[in-house]
Write a structure and sequence with these properties.
This protein is of the alpha+beta class and 149 residues long. It is built from 4 helices and 5 strands; from the N terminus they run H-H-H-H-E-E-E-E-E. It has a 5-stranded mixed barrel with strand order 1-2-3-5-4.
């Protein structure tokens, strides 16, 4: 490949895109544009190997999306491994004492967890939990505990 043909190839397109995606990643640190930088690198190598532009573009999109969808979830675990649960997330799985009958159809129910009284609802409209029973928190929707027997 001589110097004249180098300027007519898309090598600068792929190099420019790769640099652009890397700059965006440095600014945002969102682990999204880095994968497109990888796709640009693959397309750049394909161009240097003499593959036609159509194959370079296909390789760019294929590598970018494979990296994005297959490796991003694993990478996020290593980049943000110490996610601290908020107070309400720690309640999921805990046992609570039902202080007011939980009946979804009548839209009533309260439970105490860690000394605080919460509005509570059952996981199913068919299940009624009486006051004095214990239940387990399975989710939190807004300011309501969703519990099961």
């Amino acid at each position: 490949m001589n110097l004249t043909s180098l300027f007519h190839s898309p090598v600068f397109l792929w190099l420019g895109l790769m640099i652009l995606f890397l700059i965006i990643e440095i600014i945002t640190v969102g682990l999204t544009s880095i994968w497109f930088a990888g796709g640009s690198l693959a397309a750049l190598v394909a161009d240097l190997l003499g593959l036609p532009f159509l194959w370079q573009a296909i390789l760019f999109f294929a590598v970018s999306f494979i990296l994005l969808f297959l490796t991003r979830p694993f990478a996020l675990k290593f980049v943000k491994p110490h996610n601290i649960k908020t107070n309400y997330e720690e309640l999921i799985g805990k046992s609570v004492r039902v202080t007011g009958r939980i009946d979804n159809r009548e839209e009533c129910g309260t439970a105490v967890c860690n000394g605080q009284e919460w509005t509570a609802r059952s996981v199913s409209d068919d299940i009624v939990i009486e006051a004095g029973e214990t239940a387990t928190v399975v989710a939190i929707k807004g300011v309501k505990l969703i519990v099961k027997k």
